[in-house]
Amino acid sequence: MAERSFKQEVKQLALGDGQEFKGEAILAVTKALLQSGVSYVSGYQGAPISHLIDVLNDANDMLKELGVRFESSANEAAAAAALSVSVTYPLRGACTFKAPVGTNVASDALANLSSGGVKGGALIIVGEDYGEGSSIMQERSHAFAMKSQVWLLDPRPNLPSMVAAVKHGFALSEASHTPVMLMLRIRACHVHGRFVAEANRTADFLAADALAAPRRDTARIALPPATYLHEQEKVKERWPAAVRYIEEHRLNEFFAEDADEIGIVVQGGNYNTLVRALERLGLADVYGRSKIPLYVMNVAYPLVPAEVTRFCAGK
User: Fold this and answer.
1) Who contacts 303 (Cβ-Cβ below 8 Å, separation ≥6)?
2) How far apart are the C-alpha atoms of 294 and 242, rounded to whole Å?
3) What is the pLDDT of residues 80-138, one digit of tens each?
4) φ, ψ (nearest 5 deg) of residue 288
5) Burial class (CB in 10 A: 0-12, 13-18, 19+), 219
6) Beta strand 151-153 with 299-301: parallel, antiparallel or unpaired?
7) Is the peptide bond before 302 cis (omega within 30 degrees of 0)?
8) How far is 185 from 200, CA to CA, in rounded Å?
């Protein structure tokens, strides 16, 4: 049974170009999936991401109209395994579960996915549960992302940034043939706000198209000797392609870059907390305008060496 009903809220998922969305971040992320032309979504319940499954269940009629296949998975491993369809087909797919316990359960499927690489965009939305209010052990998604080479997005906790992260997450995945994790922290999942919506779009390639014309790329299966080629691809092709995309689309942000000789490098998910602390110290105003240079990494992994060097110059 769902924790709560979103029957009324999901009506906002039908908003078109230029209309203003107002509501909770979980609903905004769902809207972003539909705007991005997602083909299929899978997921497993777990705080703080449980509401995303609830929203998808309540919006299932709308998903069907767009040709989106949605399944509430038996566990995280099943949810992650569904993404393997994007290995062979140009399908945009997403899965969701709680981290780190869900990531641990799904680790086999995710490791195989990242080895062979993907053709369609593969987005893994993880509810990052650590810090104040955490219900589990204090582990984070960073180590897994670096171990398996899965790019890790950590957007600033406001609706426009999170919606943009979904859009760029799919595009980054396709540009670098690498699955992407979108990390949403506890409070970020439940923050309220607004953003200018875009029209939902039906995917160019649907799950039904894959079923009608099945095919298989054996070079993408994670078995030797292909796996040795996969590891070469990760370093020689996929990583540089990801860095290029991040730089060209300015996914990371600079604030008050030349204001002082002291600067702070911060992950996007920690931005609100940092700016609040600076405001208490008289180093930022209530609108978040900082007097201290900030380099905000909305992409926690991979790092972009040129951006780090640029920010540190003269400090």
Assistant:
1) 297
2) 22
3) 999 999 999 999 999 999 988 899 999 999 999 999 999 999 999 999 877 777 777 78
4) 90, 5
5) exposed
6) antiparallel
7) yes
8) 26
In the structure encoding, which two tokens stand for residue 219, read together? Answer: 């070079």
Nearest to 275 by CA among 265, 263, 267, 284: 284
- Residue with tokens 């870059």, as numbered in its chain: 257
**Torsion angle of C-alpha atoms 101, 143, 78, 173, degrees rounded to 10:** 140
Does the predicted model carry a pTM greater than 0.85?
yes
- In sign, the C-alpha dihedral spanning 311, 313, 314, 315 is positive
3-state helix, strand and coil shares in percent for the chain, rounded to the nearest 5: 45, 20, 35
Report the distance separating Cα 89 and Cα 107, nearest Å.
22
Alpha carbon distance 99, 126 (integer Å): 6
Residue type, 197: A
Residue 61 one-letter amino acid: D
Write out the H or E segment, with its range, that includes residue 96: strand 93-99
Reference 106, options 122, 95, 91, 117; nearest CA is 95
CB 28 within 8 A of CB 195: yes
